[in-house]
Each structure stands twice: as structure tokens, then as C-alpha cells.
Design goal:
heterodimer; A: 499 residues; alpha+beta; Arc Repressor Mutant, subunit A; BirA Bifunctional Protein, domain 2; 3-stranded antiparallel sheet; elongated; B: 570 residues; Phenylalanyl-tRNA Synthetase, Chain B, domain 1; Phenylalanyl-tRNA Synthetase, Chain B, domain 3; 4 domains; 11-stranded mixed sheet; 15 helices; 29 strands
């Protein structure tokens, strides 16, 4: 049998016939008592020793107890002084106290115990000692002396001393160890010391050697060297979270070109061609020929929508509409271009209500670069197509969406967009700062948008910058640190993952 | 979004609510959709709002909306107008690019400083919005008493001014803020305002000009003459607007007339004599649109009483008559200052605002659909997860880049037959030399990240799955777009093998067959470069970056890299 070194030592020091205490074993093995205790328990678990536990009481004199053991109990000193002064007659209290050289609280202690223990009585300021009393036979004094000498005393008198706070009592467990038959057998068959090892090796595992080794202890609290693994980009994590929520709410993801005709980006959206957002200042036009393949009937319907409006009472914009401009290709300023493509039936065929679609993809806008604005950012875009949707449905949908990000108390501020009516800016309470913050733009697509696309029912839509959600939810203050070639690798490496 | 400066004292006076505190006004204005943005130096509120209600571009319009909100005014009101005394004759030589004109005479104006400031602000704000920076419509306001009208004919007792076109140097006048007699062409070169708006007319063969009997007094859309300048002493005004669309300038004119009428002025019509016929302006005709009770209830999601709906219309400054039939339909009258009502649904929005959208109880729509990710996005996500598992830091870079970064610094040529060598998708008018095209491959972005992070700990194993594009006229959008998987391993002992090992694992994860026949690419070391061939198709490149490219990016250690089309993992 192979056992760890400490267990081998304890086993050898133990006896089958005599109980050995932990303290004795520690002395015999030259190990620390804690180590011996640990080894003893392991040996007992292996059935090699038995352990008996007895509770012993330690009695310790208090400081006051030690003082009285040395100087005598105050009541005895008082009695002896009274006998010395009066020889058994009544004596003046002051005189006795002076003679006894008791002081402070000891006087009261002496007086209260003097009568209780029959050393005499007190009468009109005079102390009357009982000449027959025998201070040398005082049980408490004897017990004090015995305790001071390390001897044991009777429980009754111990209780008395404890009540006078002259002693304190502690309990402690004494463990005594005896070898079992198995222990004796093991010793007779021979117990070897197992080696301690640093590393567990493949050889130890295959040979079974691991059973006989003891592993050296590590400082498990010490710092470990830094390890770097890969991590999904924080903005991708945020996008994943948004996609999870939307898919859970029944939305399907859209996909489509980043470079697209203005027709899909703006004209379908009923954005007048002379709208300020469509000037060359806000738009990234591409130096490529115009798009040729756009359904002609759709172009006609969109043109008519712009020029004449939709329905008997509809009016168009009083703005020119040029097909050339509509066919010009640019980088999309919003992913609503995808919504237009899907709603038109161009992407996945004619859509019958109900439908829910979303996209979390990049859009391009010529904005001033600053900590919160980039030329490219991710737009969360979503829409619901159904018969007879109301503003209340829109509100309920957004409350649900934002609640997944801890944003509550959604407020709907009436707003204007050329492509939705009614339109709302969405505000919500920041989960940490409790501030009212803008969290999106929404509305019901206008009939001027839907009818040319061939959609006869209602569609409600909303949009929001993903970066805005990231910054609001996770406290980034400069988006350039994470998005783009100026990103800081340390920041990316240290960024917490989203839960 | 437009911002209008409004003096709270003026607001108190014009609404008749002297008791309202500034704070109360702010709340009331927010409810209207006018957001308090701050205060100007002279104490005016700066109010921002959506560009639909352009009739609120002055304190008079804001006050009118408040009066409806407070219930002090109801329904549609139209200012009384007097019969025309003045005519605007449109000459046949008027520039064909800017053929339309409208106007009004305004009498009995009491212009104190505040009122004059407000008028000037309204003019400027209308220019900036509806007027599309004066291109679509430009307003000129003149002191009527300084004009001397031509007598039109023997039958007519009235006066006339003429809207015409002249040669760029065909006449001279003294423009506002100037002391010199200048020709219109000289104004465009020498006068501050002239230079600012020169682009609007410089291509015209003939410049727009307005004459009275005395001579040229206005050069729209650029600047008025000094002779007719409006001051606080002006009591009678001539308002003219020229532009490219009659409706637009008529509505701009209406907004100005309503603002002046709100200060007690009287509006007098003018005749506009086009070659094809004469029209009388301003056009205060009240238009109507029809909307059903049912549609209003559906959009708002609440049940409403008919009387209640009519009340909400009137509180919005509209009038409504119910037409009972199979379904109740309202004929809604719309005042002539409204420029935002294109469709009956715009009227439902007004009802909703008057009702209070925030009074509506949200409800989750009872509509069942099944959601799913797009195939492409799932694939991209799976590949990204695999790369992260291989220890790569996932990066996110811009799609826009410069030609220098995309080609030159990687030592490749545009239009060459190598990965990344596609023709550039160029931005027509780039605003920054750093962003002139869409990147045609991802490795330039990753190399730039390495370049910007030389002070950070190595190894730097970076990956990105991202959008790339190059010009391709065969595509409908003229742009070929794809997603590429790219990775760099920047470490002191990086080799081809490190890159290939990870590439192989990735391919293995996706169950595709990888071959790496030797190839050449200017960005990579010859003899240590291979094509990425997946399932028999050449889709990318793997190798060690060429030292010239490494040094160009200020790096001091080897870089192994690969890039290929994500679609190959499908």
C-alpha cells in the first residue's frame, strides 16, 4: 500500500492498543497538528484507524481570579482585618477597611460575601466578626488555589466561582486514534510513502501511477498568465441580440444590395426628388451607369404617386420627377430600400398579409464624423404587414421590442416623415440613467408608398441605428474606437461580451 | 429639421394668453410637436419641428396653432381680401426656367421691430424649406409706396409691374446692402448675396427681373433693389414670389399673408397676367378631402362618436361635414396655409394629434407570423463563430475606403485579374479623400488595423467577414457585391502554414474541399502564395504578405493571410 507521507507517519505512530491523541501523534511524527488531523481523517475514511472523540472542559482563572488566588479573597481579608483590630468584638467599619487595605470595588465584594459566607454580620456601621468562623476552611479559597496549581475542583464550587466571574470554562474535543485491524494488517504488509508530483503526465494516467501519487499544492490564488482568445465584435454581438429578439417576435430577415437605384432607395418611399436629403450633399452617388432593369409598370405607378398622389382625393408633390434620377445608382441611405423591394414582390414574390420582416444592415450617410456619427452605420429596420393595423398595434409592437433591452415607458411623439403617416419619434427611459432618450423613428407607411408597390393592406415600420442601441445599452461613448480601421485592439479585447 | 425663433412675449400677445409662463408655453409647444431647443441671445425660444407644418415658421403661425390647441379658435378661417388694384404682367421674355410668379398687396401693416424681424425670419425660413433655397420659390417683399405702377391700358384704372427676363448685363439697379448701380451679372460677381445665389441663375440665358414704371427694382431669386426696401415705417407692402412651380409659390404667399393678417393687415388681391390668361392671387381657396369614420377608427384603434370626430377636426383648424350613407364620410375643409395635406390619411393624423396619441393604449397586434434569419446571414454567422473559435479577433471595418489603401498600398492595380483587383465602385463626389470607393477586398482594411495597432500586444490574429464590391456593368445595380472571409496572422513566426492550417480547419468545419494550387499575387511572397480553391472553384488567396506591403504599413513582423468568398462555404 502506498500512502501520502503524512498518513504513513501517522499510521506508524498510532497503536492498536493505546489511544493516542492528535497532540501526541503530532509530537511523535513532528507534523503540525492540522496536518495530523487531516491525515487521521483520511486514514479513518480508508478504515485504517478509528477515532474517538471526547469533550473536555478547560477551566481558566480570570484576571480577578488570579489576583484573589495570590492575595486571598476580599471577604477573608476583611475578616482577618476585623479579627486583628477587634479580636472578635464589633469594630468600626472604616477602621476595618483601612486595616484590610481593600480598595474600590473590592470593598463591596468583601462586604457582600462576608455575611453570605457566615464570617459575621454588619450592624449600624459596625462589623461584627464571628470568632468561630474558619477562613482556612473556605471552599472557594481552596478551589482557587487548587485551580491556580492546575488541579481539578468540584463542580458546585466551580459554579460558584464562575458566578463570581473568577473563572471561565471552555469545552474542547480531544480526538484519540487507535489502529484498526485493517490498519495493523496494512502496517504488517508494509506501507510505502507515495511520491508527490508536480504535473499529471499521460504516463501516470495510462500506468495507473496516478493512484499512488500525491500532487503538490499550488497557490491557487496567484494570478495566472493572460490568455487571449477571439471574440465576436461587440457590434456584431449587439446585432445578434437584436436579430434574436426580432426572430422571436416572428420577423424574417431581408437581404439586398448596398448599391441600389434611387428608385428603390427614395422614390418608392415617396421622397420627393427635390427633398433636401436627396441632394448630392447627403447622398453617396456612385460613378456607374444608371440601373436598367426596373419594372416599367412600377416606375409608372411610382411616378404617378409623386405627381398626382394616390386615390380620388390624393395630391402629388409639386416637384419635378425624373426617371433618370430614379435610375441613378447610389449607396443606400437606409435599408428601407430592402423593405420596398420586398413589399413590391420583387424579392420573394407577392406577399400576402400577415408578414413581418426585418434587417440589421449597413447604410451610408454623409454626416459629420464625430463620436456618435459615422459615414456608415447599421440600421435596424422592421415592418409588419397586416389588414387594418392601428397606431395601437404599432405602439404595442415597439413596447415589446424595446422591453427586451430594458427600455420601458415608451413615449410616442408625433413626427413627420415623407413616407409614413402617422409618424412617431420613439422615446424611452434609459435603464440605468432613467433619462428620456430618442430610440427610433416609426410610422404607418403612406398609401402613396404602398399602393404603387401593389400593397393594399397596412404596413407599419420603424428604424433605429444599431450603434445607438449599443451606446445606450452598453455605455460606449466613441463609436470610432470599435468600428473601422482606427479601432483599438485592446479595447476590443477587453470589451465585455453581451449577455 | 426647421428651427424657428419665437419671442415668448410676442406669443403671449398673439395668442391673447398674457398669463402663460415660459414653462407652460414650452409644454404646450411640445404637445404640438415643437421642441424647445434653447434660447437666442435676445431671449427668443428656438423651436425645432418636423418640416410638414411650414405654416408654423413664424410666431404668427405658432400662435395660431396654439389658439386651436387652447380651443380659442375652431375650424377654418380665411382672411377677407379686397379687390385687386395691382397687376403683375408676365412678359413673354420671362426666363423659361422660372416662369411662375404670384403675389399680394398688403395694406395697413404695423411693423414694429419684432414684427419686421418675424417677417424677415419667415421669408428666410420659407426660402430654406419650401423654396428649396430659393430654387423653387423666392419671395420679394417691397414697400408699396416706393413703386410706381405702369398704367396698363385705357380701360384699366389699376397699376402694373412686369415680370420679365433681361440680358445679364441688360440693365442696372442698386441692390439691397449696396450703393452701386450694378447689372445683374455684376451683382452675381460683386455682391455677397449675389455670389451666394449665383448658381441659381448663372446658366440662364436671360435673368429674371421685375420692373415698375421707374425701372428695374428686383432681381429674383437673388436680391431686391434698395429703392423698395421694407422698414419699420412701411405701411403698405407688395409681396411677389417667383419660382418653378405655381402651387409652391402660391402656398408660400398664403403663409406670408396669413402671418401679416394675424397682425391686423388687410390683404388685397393682385392679378397675374400670363400670356394664356389671368389669375387672381393670393389663392385662398379652401380645398376639401374625404375620409371615412371607419378609417379614422381603424387607424387610431379606438371607437369614436361622430360629434367627437368633428370636434377633433375643428380643434385642428379644419372643418368637417359628415355625409351619412352606408358609411359615414367626412368632407373635410383644409385652410389654404396648409402645405402638408396630400392624402385623407394626413387628416386622420390631425385627428390623432388632437385626440392625443399618447392617450392610446398600446396593444400587441394579434397577427401570427414565423420568423427566421436569412440564409446568407446564418452562413456568415456560422463562419464568424468558427473563426472566433480558431482564436481570431472578429473585426468590423468600413466598406468605404480610398483607392490608395485598396490598391496602391497593397501593391495591386485596379482592373487587374487578382483578388481585390476589380474595377473600383467610385463615389461620384467624395467628401473625404479617405473614402472614395467601396473596398474590393477586405485585407486592406485588416492591414490598416494592424498598422494602427503596432503598440498593442502580439500575436494579432484578426479576421473579418465583410462586404466587398467592384464595378460590374453586367450587374443590374452595376455593382458586384459579395461577402468575403479574410484573416491575418501577425506574429514573429507567422508562416504560410499558419494561415493554411486555419483555412483548412474552416473548410473542414463546413464540409467543403480545399485545394491550394500555387499562384501569384502582388500582395504576397512568390512561392508562398496559393489560390484558395474550394470544391473545385477558385475563390480566394492564401499566403505570406509581401515584405513591401508589410513595410508600407509600418509593420515589423511577418503576416500570413487568407481571403475568399464566403459563398464558397455554402
Amino acid at each position: 500500500m502506498r500512502l501520502p507521507e503524512s498518513q504513513v507517519a501517522v499510521l506508524n505512530a498510532a497503536s492498536a492498543t493505546d489511544e493516542r491523541t492528535i497532540a501526541q501523534l503530532a509530537e511523535a511524527t513532528d507534523l503540525k497538528p492540522e496536518t495530523v488531523t487531516g491525515a487521521v481523517f483520511d486514514l479513518r475514511d480508508d478504515g485504517l484507524v478509528t477515532v474517538t472523540e471526547t469533550v473536555e472542559e478547560d477551566v481558566e482563572l480570570t484576571d480577578e481570579g488570579v489576583e484573589y488566588a495570590d492575595d486571598g479573597l476580599p471577604e477573608i481579608r476583611l475578616y482577618r482585618a476585623a479579627m486583628d483590630v477587634g479580636g472578635g468584638d464589633a469594630v468600626q467599619m472604616g477602621q476595618v477597611i483601612g486595616a484590610s487595605s481593600l480598595g474600590g470595588p473590592q470593598v463591596d465584594i468583601a462586604l457582600s460575601n462576608f455575611a453570605r459566607k457566615g464570617y459575621g454580620h454588619i450592624d449600624s456601621g459596625e462589623l461584627v466578626p464571628d470568632a468561630d468562623a474558619d477562613p482556612d476552611a473556605d471552599g472557594e479559597a481552596a478551589a482557587l488555589s487548587a485551580l491556580a496549581a492546575g488541579e481539578t475542583v468540584d463542580t458546585d464550587v466551580l459554579d460558584q466561582l464562575e458566578s463570581r466571574k473568577l473563572v471561565v470554562r471552555h469545552e474542547r474535543t480531544i480526538r484519540a486514534v487507535t489502529l484498526t485491524d485493517e490498519g495493523v494488517t496494512a502496517l504488517m504488509e508494509g506501507v510505502e510513502t507515495a511520491e508527490t508530483v508536480d504535473r499529471l503526465t499521460p504516463e501516470m494516467l495510462t500506468s495507473g501511477e496516478w493512484e499512488d501519487v500525491e500532487f503538490t499544492e499550488y497557490n491557487v490564488e496567484a494570478d495566472a498568465p493572460e490568455v487571449r482568445g477571439g471574440k465576436k465584435h461587440i457590434l456584431r454581438q449587439t446585432a445578434d441580440r437584436v436579430k434574436d429578439v426580432l426572430v422571436g417576435m416572428g420577423f424574417s430577415e431581408m437581404e439586398g444590395p448596398h448599391a441600389d437605384a434611387d428608385f428603390w432607395i427614395n422614390d418608392c418611399l415617396f421622397m420627393p426628388q427635390d427633398h433636401p436629403a436627396r441632394t448630392h450633399w447627403d447622398r453617396f452617388a456612385l460613378d456607374v451607369p444608371p440601373m436598367e432593369d426596373i419594372p416599367e409598370d412600377l416606375i409608372d405607378r411610382v411616378r404617378s404617386s409623386h405627381l398626382n398622389g394616390v386615390g380620388d382625393d390624393g395630391d402629388g408633390y409639386h416637384s419635378p420627377w425624373s426617371e433618370d434620377f430614379a435610375r441613378a445608382v447610389a449607396l443606400r441611405g437606409h435599408t428601407t430600400s430592402l423593405s420596398m423591394r420586398y413589399l413590391s414582390g420583387h424579392e420573394v414574390g407577392e406577399l400576402e398579409p400577415p408578414q413581418r420582416y426585418f434587417s440589421v444592415e449597413k447604410v451610408y450617410r454623409n454626416d459629420t464624423l464625430d463620436p456618435t456619427h459615422l459615414l456608415e452605420f447599421y440600421q435596424i429596420e422592421g415592418w409588419v404587414m397586416a389588414e387594418d393595423l392601428s397606431v395601437r398595434d404599432l405602439m404595442g409592437t415597439f413596447e415589446e421590442f424595446y422591453s427586451h433591452f430594458g427600455i420601458t415607458d415608451i413615449q410616442f411623439k408625433p413626427h413627420y416623415n415623407p413616407y409614413t403617416e402617422p409618424s412617431f419619434e420613439l422615446f424611452g427611459r434609459h435603464p440605468e440613467t432613467n433619462e428620456l432618450i430618442e430610440i427610433g423613428n416609426s410610422g404607418m407607411f403612406r398609401e402613396e408608398v404602398l399602393r404603387p408597390l401593389g400593397v393594399e393592406c397596412d404596413v407599419m415600420a420603424w428604424g433605429l441605428a444599431l450603434e445607438r442601441l449599443l451606446m445606450l445599452m452598453y455605455g460606449f461613448d466613441d463609436i470610432r474606437d470599435v468600428h473601422g480601421t482606427l479601432c483599438d485592439l485592446d479595447l476590443l479585447r477587453e470589451t465585455e461580451v453581451l449577455r | 429639421m426647421p428651427v424657428v425663433d419665437v419671442q415668448p412675449d410676442e406669443l403671449r400677445r398673439l395668442t391673447g394668453h398674457e398669463e402663460k409662463s415660459d414653462e407652460e408655453f414650452k409644454d404646450d409647444l411640445f404637445a404640438l410637436g415643437l421642441e424647445f431647443e434653447g434660447v437666442t441671445e435676445d431671449g427668443a425660444f428656438q423651436l425645432e419641428f418636423g418640416p410638414d407644418r411650414l405654416d408654423r415658421l413664424s410666431v404668427e403661425g405658432v400662435a395660431r396653432s396654439l389658439r386651436y390647441q387652447y380651443g380659442d379658435a375652431r375650424g377654418v378661417t380665411v382672411p377677407k381680401t379686397n379687390d385687386p388694384d395691382w397687376t403683375i404682367v408676365v412678359d413673354e421674355s420671362v426666363p423659361e426656367e422660372r416662369p411662375y410668379v404670384t403675389g399680394a398687396v398688403v395694406r395697413g401693416v404695423d411693423l414694429d421691430e419684432a414684427a419686421l424681424d418675424s417677417l424677415i425670419q419667415l421669408q428666410e425660413k420659407l426660402h430654406a424649406t419650401m423654396g428649396r433655397k430659393r430654387a423653387k420659390g423666392a419671395i420679394g417683399i417691397h414697400d408699396l409706396t416706393m413703386l410706381k405702377g405702369d398704367v396698363l391700358s385705357e380701360q384699366s384704372t389699376g397699376n402694373a409691374i412686369t415680370y420679365t427676363g433681361i440680358e445679364p448685363d441688360g440693365d442696372t439697379f442698386v441692390a439691397l446692402d449696396s450703393n452701386e448701380e450694378l447689372t445683374p451679372a455684376e451683382v452675381l460677381e460683386q455682391h455677397d448675396t449675389g455670389r451666394k445665389y449665383a448658381d441659381l441663375v448663372s446658366e440662364y440665358e436671360r435673368y429674371p427681373a421685375i420692373y415698375d414704371e421707374i425701372g428695374l427694382f428686383s432681381f429674383p431669386p437673388v436680391i431686391n433693389g434698395r429703392r423698395t426696401e421694407v422698414t419699420t415705417d412701411s405701411r403698405e407692402l407688395f409681396v411677389e414670389l417667383t419660382g418653378t412651380d405655381q402651387w409652391t409659390i402660391d402656398r408660400m404667399c398664403n403663409i406670408i399673408c396669413y402671418a401679416l393678417a394675424a397682425r391686423g393687415a388687410t390683404i388685397e388681391e393682385v392679378e397675374v397676367e400670363y400670356e394664356g390668361g389671368t389669375v387672381v392671387r393670393p389663392d385662398f381657396e379652401v380645398e376639401t378631402k374625404h375620409v371615412s369614420h371607419d378609417r379614422i377608427e381603424t387607424v387610431l384603434g379606438v371607437d369614436l362618436e361622430m360629434d367627437g370626430v368633428i370636434d377633433l377636426f375643428e380643434r385642428s383648424g379644419l372643418d368637417a361635414d359628415a355625409e351619412l350613407g352606408d358609411e359615414t364620410v367626412y368632407e373635410v375643409s383644409i385652410p389654404p396655409y396648409r402645405v402638408d395635406v396630400l392624402h385623407p390619411l394626413d387628416l386622420v393624423d390631425d385627428v390623432g394629434r388632437a385626440y392625443g396619441f399618447n392617450e392610446l393604449e398600446p396593444r400587441y397586434p394579434d397577427v401570427g407570423t414565423v420568423g427566421q434569419r436569412h440564409e446568407r446571414s446564418r452562413l456568415e454567422d456560422a463562419a464568424r463563430t468558427a473563426l472566433v473559435g480558431l482564436g481570431f479577433e472578429d473585426l468590423l471595418n468600413f466598406h468605404m475606403i480610398s483607392e490608395e489603401e485598396n490598391y496602391e498600398r497593397m501593391d495591386i492595380e485596379p482592373g487587374s485579374d487578382v483578388l481585390g483587383g476589380g474595377e473600383p465602385t467610385s463615389i461620384t463626389e467624395p467628401y473625404s479623400e479617405d473614402y472614395t470607393m467601396l473596398r474590393s477586398w477586405v485585407l486592406p482594411s485588416l492591414t490598416m488595423v494592424l498598422e494602427n495597432n503596432t503598440h498593442r500586444a502580439y500575436p494579432q490574429d484578426l479576421a473579418e467577414i465583410g462586404h466587398v464590391a467592384h464595378r460590374d456593368d453586367d450587374e443590374n445595380t452595376r455593382v458586384s457585391e459579395a461577402r468575403h472571409v479574410a484573416a491575418v496572422l501577425a506574429r514573429h513566426d507567422a508562416t504560410y502554414e499558419d494561415a493554411k492550417a486555419r483555412l483548412a480547419t474552416l473548410c473542414n468545419d463546413f464540409g467543403v474541399e480545399l485545394e491550394t494550387p500555387a499562384t501569384e499575387h502582388p500582395s504576397f511572397i512568390p512561392g508562398r502564395t496559393a489560390s484558395v480553391v474550394i470544391d473545385g472553384e477558385e475563390v480566394g488567396i492564401v499566403g505570406e504578405l509581401y515584405p513591401k506591403v508589410i513595410v508600407e504599413h509600418d509593420l515589423e513582423l511577418p503576416v500570413a493571410a487568407f481571403e475568399f468568398d464566403l459563398a464558397a462555404l455554402q
